[in-house]
Protein: biotin--[biotin carboxyl-carrier protein] ligase
Amino acid sequence: METINGLMLWSAGREGLADSITVNELKSVHPAWARVVADCTAWVEQGDFTVCSTTAETPAPVCICGPCGSSLDVAWALVEQGALSEWGAVLAVSQRSGRGQLRRDWISPAGNLYAAWLWPELPQAFAPLVSLVAGGVVAETLKELGMAVHIKWPNDLLLENGRKVGGILVEERFGKTLVGIGLNLDSSPQDSEIRESWSPRAGIMSPLGDEKNVISLWCGLVKSARCWYEAHASSENPQNFLDWLESRIAWLGLNVRVRSSQGEFVAVPVGLAADGGLVLRRGNQTEILYSGSIALE
Structure:
């Protein structure tokens, strides 16, 4: 398989991994993707791919794929074949079995953002913080676009009203790190479709405007991430980052219900530990949560 360069549509797809898709089919999938097609006025067939030859240069390679199980599965297949370089990403039109926290399925219709993003190796001190770093990058980029979101530890993105509009999932294999990102740009599950009573209700982000499409939003996220990486790649102390991130963590200082291997209890999140754990005040004691979920009490 050839290396992904610029903006490419995996038109051939692969059986059992991603459906084949033509430029005309991409255009008809959803208005968000129709804008992507319109912004690229010349598509050139190149083997199994169709390449956009007129769009502005992307800050990293982007592979658009047709309906698939999960963008992460597609990205891992490309990584295994050496076809996806650092900061490169797979953007899926839709997913049949998108993965969420604790491997829960996430409903993934066309119109939203479903990305799997190959990150470079982070400084050792930041290695446990990949999910939080990605959340901070996304939150800051969306803030610049006028959409304020907060991070519900460890990997959900919430609006001010507490509705979940996105999530982040980190997977590591072969010494490589993929960051999966989902954003509800157009639709979200109904309240009745959220199975767990403690999970936040879903919501939709405010419109991006006609001048924005899925690719331009994605390019903004990539640029922010690369700027962050270049500023911190030699850092051995993540504390300044954690101090900055705490202002974007949801529910600090409020009572939350915690579900973990220790059972279910009420505590107050008060900050982030140096390794990314959530610091909880529980009565007169302080403890650190590394695995589990929280819900506003």
About this structure: The longest strand covers residues 164-173.
